């Protein structure tokens, strides 16, 4: 961000230049000198601000889908929000999570590699308690998972990956599948310690219990689709999606529109006196012979040529010829 000087600072600077306390040439030299910034190779910047913004938008949708899913499964109040999206080394992520936690390791075809959905024990045990008929309170101490608890958690979080698939649908049609459920971070090594990851932190509240859900996405996994995470691609794809939806909706509405279809036997001109003198049994001579086809109009445009007849004792018209689209009937 560019620093803006106040009026007092500008006056003080001009006074210093005029009094000789500061040299204008020295200021120019300082500006032309190269600015050196330290760079930590262990914290390599792989995700641009543009990528971080796109990941934030995607996982805000993920949080909404997840809220709906967990609310339906647990039948209680659930609130999930994106707190932060940041990039950091994988080793730092492992050291930041509890020694005893719930780690859902999964892949997402067609992407290659593995990702992790880490759930704080308070949140995970509150879910299990609700699924088993409890009030949703987490235990004071979390020990080793039993086989029943493991199966329940696998079932809950396997369904949660459908929400992730829906959230990513605008960028990539992926199919997340759980590979394993771990509780010790030391036994989980999905990438090298120095590999940069995107960490999406979700604050989660289930009833009176709160905790964090962290989604770890290694850079090497989503590197092939990084170009799709740009804001330009995001808005263009959304615009195309909306445009296609509008076209489909328009087609559906037009297909249901009703149009008048008229089959004309012919025309005849009568004076008002002749018209008023018509009675039962009179015959009106038309300008077409019986050998000529009928003009079938859709709206006011000539579209078909046909011949009269009957079907099941009802008057009908058989289409014999299709007139080129847009060609109107010529005046006789």
From TrEMBL:
Record key words, sorted: Bacterial flagellum, Cell membrane, Cell projection, Chemotaxis, Cilium, Flagellar rotation, Flagellum, Membrane
Gene3D superfamilies xrefs: CheC-like (3.40.1550.10), SpoA-like (2.30.330.10)
Listed name of the protein: Flagellar motor switch protein FliM
Subcellular location: Bacterial flagellum basal body; Cell membrane
Lineage: superkingdom: Bacteria
PANTHER family referenced in this protein's UniProt entry, alphabetically: FLAGELLAR MOTOR SWITCH PROTEIN FLIM, YOP PROTEINS TRANSLOCATION PROTEIN Q
CDD domains from the UniProt entry: FliM
One Pfam family, short name: FliM
InterPro entries: CheC-like_sf, Flag_FliM, FliN-like_C, SpoA-like_sf
Native organism: Paenibacillus sediminis
Membrane topology, as annotated: Peripheral membrane protein
């Amino acid at each position: 961000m560019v620093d803006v000087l106040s009026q007092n600072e500008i006056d003080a600077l001009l006074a210093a230049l005029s009094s000789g306390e500061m040299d204008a040439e020295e200021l120019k030299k300082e500006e032309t000198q190269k600015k050196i910034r330290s760079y930590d190779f262990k914290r390599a910047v792989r995700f641009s601000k543009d990528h971080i913004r796109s990941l934030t938008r995607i996982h805000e949708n993920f949080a909404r889908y997840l809220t709906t899913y967990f609310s339906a499964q647990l039948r209680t109040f659930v609130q999930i929000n994106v707190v932060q999206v940041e990039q950091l080394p994988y080793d730092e992520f492992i050291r930041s999570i509890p020694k005893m936690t719930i780690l859902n390791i999964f892949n997402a075809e067609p992407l290659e590699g593995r990702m992790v959905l880490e759930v704080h024990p308070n949140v995970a045990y509150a879910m299990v308690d609700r699924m088993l008929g409890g009030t949703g309170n987490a235990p004071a101490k979390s020990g080793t998972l039993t086989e029943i608890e493991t199966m329940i958690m696998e079932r809950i979080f396997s369904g949660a990956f459908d929400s992730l698939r829906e959230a990513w649908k605008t960028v990539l049609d992926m199919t997340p599948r759980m590979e394993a459920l771990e509780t010790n971070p030391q036994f989980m090594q999905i990438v090298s310690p120095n590999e940069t990851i995107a960490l999406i932190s979700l604050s989660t509240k289930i009833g009176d219990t709160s905790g964090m859900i962290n989604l770890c996405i290694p850079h090497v996994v989503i590197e092939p689709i990084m170009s799709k995470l740009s804001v330009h691609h995001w808005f263009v794809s959304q615009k195309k999606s909306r445009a296609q939806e509008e076209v489909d909706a328009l087609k559906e509405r037009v297909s249901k529109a009703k149009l008048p279809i008229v089959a004309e036997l012919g025309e005849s001109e009568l004076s008002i006196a002749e018209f008023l003198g018509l009675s039962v049994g009179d015959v009106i001579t038309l300008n077409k012979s019986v050998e000529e086809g009928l003009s079938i109009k859709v709206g006011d445009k000539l579209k078909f040529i046909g011949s009269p007849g009957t079907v099941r004792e009802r008057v009908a018209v058989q289409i014999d010829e299709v007139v080129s689209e847009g060609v109107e009937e010529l005046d006789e």
